[in-house]
Amino acid sequence: MITPSGEALVRDHTVYSCVMGSRAFGLATEDSDTDRRGVYLAPTPLFWRFDKPPAHVDGPADEQFSWELERFCELALRADPNVLECLHSPLVEHTDATGRELLTLRGAFLSRRAHLTFVRYAMGQRRKLEADVRQYGAPRWKHAMHLLRLLTSGRDLLRTGELTIGVGAARDGLLAVKRGEVPWPEVERRMNGLAEENDAAAAASPLPAEPDRARIEDFLIRTRRASASAGDGSAG
User: pTM (2 decimals)?
Assistant: First the structure.
């Protein structure tokens, strides 16, 4: 039995793939890259070996990154912002039966854990921006734009119980930040306000305290069993 490469796993076993980044957020400009994200299902027999299949694969194309299904589910259950947003991309490029079921489970991953993870991720990015300001006199404006977008997305998720990643009417204002047209003190004020709004939204959020782990685990077990029955572990 030949161990498949990471590239082969992505090529032959992807269950879901989409476009992310600025194109999915509605913030694309002429010079925007096309960021692709995906989920592959490593054949179950590969896990019976000492050497396990990779939990993620970078590539094979430029700006492409994929997670193995179990790792993807683990991160989504932890409310990892990048992974949750991947499940809500409006630009889906590929799904098979497993991928379609994964999409039907999007709501099972959502919980008030998002309050901590979205704000914590944003604050980590903010510290990097503040370091840039101290060292260079200005932040990386593109990163500042995406930080504001993320805080807005997290706030709206906590308020409504639904994750929408498109920025809609906020596009022009966010692109003005990207172009450096909004003074840094004003950007900081907006960040502070959005962080406070996230805190307030969490207190009254319709989201459950925890994700539906049992439902996701049932899906993963059924999927692994189906793969084992198929006996496909020889792609190379």
Answer: 0.91
